[in-house]
Design brief:
CATH architecture of the largest domain: 3-Layer(aba) Sandwich
Bound molecules: uridine-diphosphate-N-acetylglucosamine
Mean pLDDT: 96
Low-confidence stretches: none
Number of domains: 2
CATH topology of the largest domain: Rossmann fold
Distance between the termini: 38 Å
Number of strands: 13
Length: about 350
């Protein structure tokens, strides 16, 4: 079964390509390398021992995407990762986010319709919940206004999928996966997160600080209404998250979905504070981290974590990697990067 993976050279995409291949699928990568590097392809190849067909195109480019569908002849399903993902940047460049994130989905759906490809797994995010009234969030928790243009693009993309699926001629079947916070790297340390410039996300900032690339981690606020005053998130190991895609694709191909659009939270079901993550990192690495508590970051949700029951009951999906092991893999990856300059 041939699965097109847009953004397949990116952080989550590269791990999903590996898991798909190892589960017996034929992944095909589409990536414009705007926020990923060729080295991810070498890493994938080193893990699986094979080259994955790769198209260096922008999936918002209709003509280029059509060429991929023509060349590959029969595509059984698509996993659509390709998107911009920096919350702060989305506030600076909202149009670029709407163009790219919503635009590429529209183009992809047009081309999938033309080539009668009917299975889609879409990368959504817990950001669609906004600031929730109650925790943990279930798939039925109502969405609140998004705290950033990035978050709004994910809400809009979910709406697009629902509207397209409601059309009388619709043949599309979609699984929306709402990710919580992916962290860590493949245990081989051959693929992982490659942040460009100063990292926005917590774990790469921690590992770069430990490696001496950044001087000090600033914890964004210590006065939240949480047990230790810092934000709470649900940190999921990226390989666990990648495996959720394999299960979702299989469910679509088996036509087991109970609705044309199904939505699943993909998280561990546990919340950890920023301070707990720092402490777990210190334990996993055996190092002391230089950090201080700074001001709050605009747009941060005080606390969010998943109710992961639906994914477990319906998909049979359960995370396997602890926070400690996830952070150990992130640290191993950082050290590999550092060694290679
Ligand atoms: C955000 C998005 C999420 C998106 C992800 C991708 C929201 C609500 N969430 O996650 O959908 O997939 O970005 O980039 O829009 N922190 C520090 N110091 C740092 C960095 C982070 O204290 O230097 C804290 C943050 O304030 C937050 C936690 O660590 O409490 C996690 O932050 P981060 O890794 O940036 O992810 P989110 O903002 O949760």
């Amino acid at each position: 079964m041939k699965i097109l993976v847009t953004g397949g050279a990116g952080y989550i995409g590269s791990h999903a390509v590996v898991e798909l291949y190892q589960a017996g699928y034929q992944p095909v990568i589409v990536d414009n390398f705007s926020n990923s590097e060729e080295s991810a392809l070498a890493g994938i190849e080193a893990i699986i021992g094979a080259k994955v067909p790769t198209y260096r195109i922008d999936c918002a480019d209709n003509a280029a995407l059509r060429t991929v569908f023509q060349t590959e002849e029969k595509i059984d399903g698509v996993i659509h990762f390709a998107a911009y993902k920096a919350v702060g940047e989305s506030v600076q460049k909202p149009l670029a986010y709407f163009q790219n994130n919503v635009g590429s989905l529209l183009t992809l759906l047009e081309v999938m319709t033309e080539f009668e490809v009917t299975n889609l797994v879409f990368s959504s995010s817990c950001t669609v919940y906004g600031i929730p009234d109650a925790l943990p969030v279930t798939e039925a928790t109502p969405s609140k206004p998004a705290s950033s243009p990035y978050g709004r693009t994910k809400q809009m993309c979910e709406d697009v999928v629902h509207d397209v699926s409601a059309a009388p001629t619709n043949k599309l079947h979609t699984i929306l996966l709402r990710y919580f916070n992916p962290i860590g790297a493949h245990n081989s340390a051959k693929i992982g997160e490659l942040p460009l410039g100063v990292p926005n996300n917590l774990v790469p900032y921690i590992t770069q600080t430990a490696a001496g690339i950044r001087e000090q981690l600033t914890i964004n606020g210590g006065d939240y209404d949480t047990p230790d005053g810092t934000n709470i998130r649900d940190y999921i190991h990226v390989v666990d998250l990648a495996k959720a895609h394999v299960v979702a694709v299989q469910r679509l191909l088996d036509r087991k979905a109970s609705e044309v659009v199904e939505t699943f939270n993909v998280g561990t079901g546990h919340g950890n504070s920023v301070l707990e993550v720092v402490q777990a990192f210190e334990q996993a690495s055996g190092l002391k981290l230089n950090y201080h508590i700074g001001p709050r970051r605009a747009g941060d949700v005080p606390a969010i974590y998943a109710d992961a029951t639906k994914a477990e009951q319906v998909l049979g999906f359960k995370t396997e990697t602890s926070l400690l092991d996830s952070l150990a893999s992130a640290w191993k990856w950082q050290q590999t990067l550092h060694k290679n300059g």
